[in-house]
Amino acid sequence: MNGNLSIKLKQFILLDDCPPDWKEYDLYCIRDGDATFYVGRSYLAFDRVWEHIRNGWKARSLVGRFLLCNWPASMNFEIHLMSSRASDFDPVRNDPALAEEMLIKRHRPCLNDSLNAEPLELPEKYLPPNAEIRCSRSLTKLRFQAALAVKNEEKKKWMEG
Known about the structure:
four-stranded antiparallel β-sheet; globular; alpha+beta
């Protein structure tokens, strides 16, 4: 078992279905560099991250709304998927709820309210989740933009390499 995986939002948003190897991941973290925005837990982290994205437009997910408010910059945010069964979580007996709490205490994510006694302030370079959503309300358009960004990134690496 690998224990964790990181993928940029622009790559994540291109996936329709959860890859079989990712079904072990029950924890997730959304971050950009040193800024951790949110830590969460779900039976299937892949599906939960998708719920956040889809519910952002409807203001049912603070995290999803934050991602949409910060689009297109948020395309480069990292989605970090983890398994509570990984050795990193042995100190909490690999209990998913305790693993989530451990991550929240460690990273002090900006957008987590529960289990987070001292959340870090959202860095000024990011729009807050209550800002106006300026990106398209069409998932198809967002996916097109993400696919183009991935293609351009690959082309740049190819030309430099």
